[in-house]
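In line with agreed milestones, the collection of sequences with tokenised folds has grown. A representative record is reproduced below.
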Amino acid sequence: MEVKVKDPSLAGEGRLKIEWAEAHMPVLMELRRRYQDKKPLRGYRISAALHVTKETAVLIRTLKAWGAEVSLVPSNPLSTQDDVAAALADEGIAVRAWRGMNEQEYFEAIREAARSSPDVVVDDGADLHVTLHEEMPSVAKNVIGGNEETTTGVIRLKALEASGRLLYPVIAVNNALTKYLFDNRYGTGQSALDGVLRATNVLLAGKRLVVAGYGWVGRGIAIRARGMGARVIVTEVDPIRALEAVMDGFDVMSMDEAAPLGDIFITATGDKDVIRKEHMLKMKDGAILANAGHFNVEVSVTDLESIAKSKREIRPNTVEYVLPDGRRLYLLAEGRLVNLVAAEGHPSEVMDMSFANQALSVLYHINNRGRLQPKVYDVPLEQDQEVARLKLRTMGINIDELTPEQQEYLRSWK
């Protein structure tokens, strides 16, 4: 794949960022050391479509240390850290990524990664998986297996499987307990608010913050916002999750009811048009709109453009839309992932577990080549537990083990 980054001279800065991430990702570094002499991925090609961040760089370096030939493209046009991309390119990784890609440049990079005839596909959002299936099925048929990092991508791949069109097995890394319980909840919970604060520098204490969706991402945002003094409102379509939010102590209502109350809105649903024209027209002057879902479809930017009489970028990653009556609404990060566009994404410590699962899932595909059907699989429980065990060990935490008698007691129907 043709290597293309914004500025190769940024490689030195990128290497420092990667070193910082490596110092805070001990599980993945332990796994790198465990397998780097054996080179279990020697001779295999991996195409990855991931947010090009310092944490991703640690994963890519690990796969390379295990012997793989790796191509890397972004999974979002605005999430690439250009210095990290430059550092990886300088180390011989086939990178085609820069911040601010237009739609054509982004999808051409995805196609380049697909055309490299990968043995294993590592994706975040499933754009690479879908491109292989729609545009290059002859290439997809030779793929040993793939991984998927995020909820939105898993939804797309399960739909592909349900239609009978999935051409290779995929491991839903997102569904690992050591991924979604920590990455989705604590990682997005912290980094989404970090993005909002970097873009606006507003005070959260006392604000009414509306979280759309109470999945693991939404509940993480809600918990963190409450911890910083915000008065949190949750909107949901699932009655069980809505009831859970109520029992967790949050106000729960429809978006129609929340629209005139909220000071800050953060979407976290994985669906489209969660905040629409009818909601925007009810919002108070100065309301802030942000998205923590994978694609820029949750806040309807089209609707916002249609009702505004003017707009201007008033701060980096903050665009002010003025409505005909003079009210101002502020859209952050173009409606894209606020934590990666306006901030640095998840902290390295939480990506440590997610990317440990990615690396081990690549090995799982290689070790089980030819034995898996074209289906979406969950991460094996043994792998999940090993990642958790390693994380606890790196934190200096010891836990109990069942005695043989206790194990027998739990197995017995008596």
Remarks:
- The chain has two domains: 8-179+346-394, 187-341.
